[in-house]
Write a structure and sequence with these properties.
Length: 356
């Protein structure tokens, strides 16, 4: 079988620390399963910008183009103007048309204490997936600043852009036997959302067995902490998805817990934790690698159709969270682990599992 090519973008801040742990997991899979991969680093982000004057140099783009999937850490440096380093990630999303941003938010049994909500709000558990449109909306980058007086960004929704991500969300819900799909918009004000809602209803007619629910973004922001256990598949536009995914991730106790996949189905896709570069804790060995390791789970499932390996990774993460924790989700009852120790704990379990 041909080896899958994985581009590795470590990035800035805690990016390299968490990616090293994700890489550990990929290397165990490489050694102990029949999924074979080769790895190639593609530097990008703020520190690269400082050296080359570009946050995504041509050389890295060439490596990415030849790969099957990307494992991405985080980018952004506090001493660069905001947005400069971030251009790298936005460029990759646009260039490779990674139109789905898949963001599962799952509270594991062994980590229920991490959730900041009272038990009654956790109900029978939190297990939702945000399907965020990833190339349009306010991220279409139409607009600019005029004489430091006027600034504009055009919110762009196209029928094609809405249809493809909404279809993806319905298929996602169907495959997982979700009874309900929730669409989040601002249709009481925005024309973009009115088109979105119309297309959601049109496509929804083809899925009679799935209940459809519409929420306005403001109301959904309170719903997600009030009855998070009722959410299953949630589909929404780019900026709304960006905002609610950070809110939802904190239901797991830390942004460090949540993974994501920037997906173009059947083509090159990119997997990354949803947290940023976190320069305040970089270099201290305390960052939580779970979001990155769960992004590796998404990679093997979504890019390489290996649900089996994904399940193995997930089981190991769940067990590890019951034994030790990084600082951000610490518990009095469990030992505190460094980034590397948490990675090793999960990797060790996976090795045992795959050797069986
Ligand atoms: C995310 C991030 C990015 C976004 C930034 C880094 C450009 O916040 O992946 O959620 O806004 O999409
Ligand atoms: Mn974000």
């Amino acid at each position: 079988m041909e080896k899958k090519k994985i581009a590795i973008i470590k990035g800035d801040g805690v990016g390299p620390e968490v990616v090293n742990e994700g890489l550990k997991i990929l290397k165990i899979i490489n050694e102990y399963s029949d999924l074979k991969m080769e790895f190639c680093e593609a530097p990008a982000g703020g520190s690269v910008y400082k050296t080359y004057g570009e946050s995504l140099p041509e050389k890295s783009l060439n490596i990415i183009e030849k790969s099957d999937a990307i494992l991405f850490g985080a980018i952004g440096l506090p001493d660069l103007p905001t947005g400069v380093a971030e251009l790298a990630i936005l460029k990759i999303r646009q260039e490779f048309d990674l139109y789905v941003n898949l963001r599962p938010i799952k509270l594991y049994e062994t980590a229920i204490d991490c959730c900041p909500l009272k038990d009654e709000y956790i109900g029978d558990g939190i297990d939702m997936t945000i399907v965020r449109e990833n190339t349009e909306g306010l991220y279409a980058k139409i607009g600019g600043i005029l004489r430091d007086e006027i600034a504009s960004n055009i919110m762009l929704y196209t029928r094609k852009g809405c249809e493809r991500v909404i279809k993806y969300a319905f298929e996602y819900a169907k495959k997982r036997n979700h009874k309900k799909i929730t669409s989040v918009d601002k249709a009481n004000v925005l024309a973009c959302s009115q088109l979105w809602r119309k297309i959601f209803e049109e496509i929804g007619m083809k899925y009679p067995n799935i209940d459809k629910e519409n929420f306005l973004i403001d109301a959904f922001c309170q719903w997600i902490i009030r009855k998070p256990y009722t959410c299953q598949t949630v589909v929404t536009g780019n900026l709304f998805g960006d905002i609610i995914s950070d809110e939802a991730a904190y239901l797991l106790g830390s942004l460090g817990m949540a993974p994501s996949g920037n997906i173009n189905p059947g083509k090159l896709s990119m997997y990354e934790p949803i947290h940023g570069a976190a320069p305040d804790i970089a270099g201290q060995g305390i960052a939580n690698p779970v979001g990155t390791i769960l992004s590796v789970k998404l990679m093997v499932e979504e890019s390489f159709q290996r649900k089996d390996l994904g399940k193995d990774i997930e089981n190991c993460v769940e067990q590890a969270l019951g034994e030790g924790r990084t600082m951000d989700i610490k518990s009095d009852k469990l030992k505190i682990l460094s980034t590397i120790d948490m990675g090793n704990l999960i990797a060790g379990k996976l090795k045992e599992q795959l050797k069986k």
